[in-house]
Amino acid sequence: MTMIQTKKLSKAYHDNEVLKSIDLEVRQGEIVVLLGPSGSGKSTLLRCLNGLETLTKGAVEINGVRLEAGMKNRAFKTNLLQIRKQTGMVFQQFNLYPHKTALGNVIESLLIVKKMPRTQAEQLGMKMLERVGLADKRDAYPSKLSGGQQQRVAIARALAMEPDILLFDEPTSALDPELVGEVLDVMRMLARDEGMTMLVVTHEMSFARNVANRVLFMDEGVIVEEGEPESFFRQPKTERAQRFLNKINQH
Amino acid sequence: MELVFENWELLFKGAYYTLYIAVISMFFGLFIGVTVALARLKGNRPVRWAARVYVSVIRGTPALVQIVIVYYGLVDYGITLGPLTAACIALSINIGAYLSEAIRGAILSIPKGQTEAALATGMTSWQAMYRIVLPQAARVAIPPMGNTFIGMLKETSLVSFIAVPELLRSAQLLIARYYVNMPFYIGIAIMYWIMSTVFSAILEAVEKRLSKAY
Fold this sequence. Notes:
Low-confidence stretches of chain A: none
Number of helices of chain A: 9
Structural class of chain A: alpha/beta
Number of helices of chain B: 9
Mean pLDDT of chain B: 92
Largest sheet of chain A: 6 strands, mixed
Radius of gyration of chain A: 18 Å
Distance between the termini of chain A: 39 Å
Strand content of chain B: under 5%
Oligomer: heterodimer
Structural class of chain B: mainly alpha
Helix content of chain A: 40-55%
Mean pLDDT of chain A: 93
Order of helices and strands of chain A: EEEHEEHEHHHEHEHEEHH
Shape of chain B: flat
Radius of gyration of chain B: 20 Å
Order of helices and strands of chain B: HHHHHHHHH
Number of strands of chain B: 0
Low-confidence stretches of chain B: none
Number of strands of chain A: 10
Strand order of the largest sheet of chain A: 6-7-8-3-9-10
């Protein structure tokens, strides 16, 4: 079953075309890693999928709900909300709400969007914090948590809405090296869970290699190459992917 | 100076009106300020434009002129307001413009990622504004709003012009009765100063608490 699909998706800022007619398809339960040099459009593609960026041309379809460039405002908004309820997103900068505790962050949208009673929301919220191993931090404010812990709370917050799809936008890029592991561990755990579809923008090659079902390599707004991680990393077909991997392997 | 103490009752009544007008205007000004700030940030083109004109006109004209327009000017259209009501309306409209700027700045200072995180979990942009952005912006806006309030406390003296019996007007009444100027003027100056200082101290304490991390 197709979970994510884009059709001739283009995104431009003024004259600068960041995404050029992208056709993407992700099936349910797939773990797809987006690789590519910075400025290649990976994050923009991810942000188009849940409508944080508007579409210049083309369409996005998430679990059967469609967003189209130039769609009527009202229909667009309805579909957008529906899509956002089915997708969770994890950001590079965590974006935890600083005025709420860890648990408060996790349950906020349960209370506001799902209108869940507080006790029920807190129960579910605690379950999510347990999944990311931070149940003991329920009353801690984000400023008292390490970067890795903050990102795990952010993952719990995304999970709490029980999405079918998780979008990760460079989730470990803002972390100190020694904190990257704990976040990747949580992501690996999620990848093992049945049914969760994950689209991950990352520079963590080991994660891409070991966890992903498929790797997409982007450059200058197009998907240049895609394939199974093993063959992609061993024998990239395109010259651009070879160059990219060479550069990374030099370090 | 004895005359000042002998007439403390009238002067205190004046101080009461001064505070009353300042607090009431601040309260309604806050409503106006939030509304106008949101109108400028989230409204469509005509709404944004109207809000901009409002702020520009109010900040670009003397408060005294605004007060006489509300009190004397509206009479031409059959709207007769009591001096106290007119004072509160004029000053609310006045302070609302200044507060809206402070609030707008505070909202803009909250990182975009906060809104994006809220939207990504399915909130509407209004829910994100009320639940996530405004509570954080309030903290940022409190110091400038406190300063605006202290400024307003002194600006209330302008409404003596339309015969509201606030502090300055009380002094003028006493001067007319006793034919001495200085003691009463000095007396009310001290009273204004004490009120401003007290509020400044309160504001400072609040700021100190706010400066602590969440």
